[in-house]
């Protein structure tokens, strides 16, 4: 197994796409095990894509792309502008609130960050904001999509780890609200020190009501998901399909439903689902090697033996995830590490909903840190700024993110309050 990991890391360092590095690393394990048939890697890869619980992923991705194509984003932007444009650093505050609202539409941090940079970036440049600050702000605002339902990261963790996706969604909302509040406070402090001005006068109740009415069906989306899961109307795979129907109905209500836009959403969805499915398939090959060598049990035994305190063990796991996130994509980390860490967390007596939300959010931080931050490269490319300027301008937002993770680690109730209220307990 060590040889497989060594090959995987070497291929990554040589610049090979991570999905192929994982697949080749897994194949090396089978080549070094004479007792295992070489037909097994193909069977494992195909079998993993037939996992019924993973059916939620393509349906939620399609629902998200439909919502984006059918006029939802523009309405959410208007509501965010009305609700926060009067604050100091108005457009920056709009970015944070839009990231929070868009989290309930797309579920993808990279997609949200890129979209917001394109939507708000040019106007923010004209208003005097630096390109590095805009890139960092849009990148970290996109991170809110990881916490707010329907988060693809939480669906992956729940599907692979056999943890209630409904409870994970509910737990993510608490973290998302706290993260958005801390980002808005950080932006307010930076705006005061840099002289960023409000964009508009405080709105009247009538203006807020009109903006909310216009975006009502989009804002309602994550709450409908939770309600459907809580009351057993749908299982996760079914609620994804229901979300597709809901997205089409929203497009019909907004009178923006057209064959061209649906085709565009389908094309984007095929690309996105293909990427995730290939990752899941290749990871199944490497994961089998870890199960064969009883790696999850060894990790659990080591943590139980070396660290008696579950909170200390959890802290060590989170620190390791932060370091790994600098070189691995968050989706890869979730798919690869969930089968290892869920048994360890269970053995340590850590609530799996609390652990899952914290793990997924910690993995996602790597999207915004050098040297392999995919969101970071995406927003820097859109804004035309260098990584150095991005890091220099974005460190307060990184500090704010780490502060929120620390608060969630210290106070599990941030995650568990809503799941216990709605579902009656954690897993």
From TrEMBL:
One of its GO terms (cellular component) is plasma membrane. The chain crosses the membrane at residues 91-111, 132-157, 169-191, 212-233, 239-257, 269-290, 310-336, 348-368, 398-418. NCBIfam families: dctM (TIGR00786). This is Probable C4-dicarboxylate transporter. It is found in: Cell inner membrane. One of its GO terms (molecular function) is transmembrane transporter activity. InterPro entries: DctM, TRAP_DctM. Residues 5-413 form the TRAP C4-dicarboxylate transport system permease DctM subunit domain. It is a multi-pass membrane protein. The keyword Lyase does not apply. Keywords: Cell inner membrane, Cell membrane, Membrane, Plasmid, Transmembrane, Transmembrane helix. It comes from the Bacteria.
